[in-house]
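User: I'm putting together a small comparison set for a docking exercise, and I want a reference complex before I start. The sequence is below, and the ligand is zinc ion. Could you produce the 3D structure with the ligand included, as structure tokens?
Assistant: Of course. I'll restate your input first, then give the structure tokens for the complex.
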Amino acid sequence: MDETWEALSDLFFPPVCYYCKSPLDSRGGRKLCPRCRELLKLVEAPYCLGCSKTNVILDEETLLCPDCQIRSKRAPLSRVIAGAAYEGLVLHLISKFKYGRCRYLADPLTDIIMAHPEFNILAPHIACLVPVPMHWTRKIIRGFNQSEDLAYELSRRTKIPVVPALKRVRYHSSQAGLKRDERMRNLGGAFQFDKRYSKRFKNLPKSKLVAIIDDVCTTGTTAELCARQLKRNGAKNIILLCAAKT
Ligand SMILES: [Zn+2]
Ligand SMILES: [Zn+2]
């Protein structure tokens, strides 16, 4: 039945590239065409083991960039796994996804997250996906939370459950253009842990990862504050999975 449906839908809506709209010869829905895929600056080794940045000088021993070397070992977020650099086509896809309300773009953006060289190694150890929450008034304005859409798409493909354990309790002004410490201040007290999920995190073995999901990581402040809340409530090893890193 699925196949018939797919064939029918291909007949009426021939699959085209998400970006350049050129026809695709493969069946099974829309994708980025090979030419556009090449335009993505996907993360490839060598990259920083802390933040996934590629155009940085890495310490030979730790394979960390200077910023990540300074960051405390006790920082609540242990790693940032970003599929691509936040530029060019990825930047375009993300802004169309968020501000152009093109929710179908969760699909290629999830491809980008999963394209990270270590994704398949980490995935079996991830216990749950926690989307970065959006304040309910903003969600009404935008109509959806992009991090949630990415988390559910990733969950659909990997079968890792989504656990919406965080709430955004303060509606704050936009973070864009603010420096790291200004962001921290702007965001202070913005996230709250939903106590209904306490047991779930407290019972997790140390070897299991909790993955926060977001579209972009800029300074990392948002993810760090989310991680702090999760850690306070029992999560031990927390990473961030995102499509792009600035
Ligand atoms: Zn294309
Ligand atoms: Zn780094």
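The chain has two domains: 1-37, 40-245. Residues 17, 19-20, 22, 32-33, 35-36 surround zinc ion (ligand 1) (CB under 6 Å).
User: Thanks, that's exactly what I needed.
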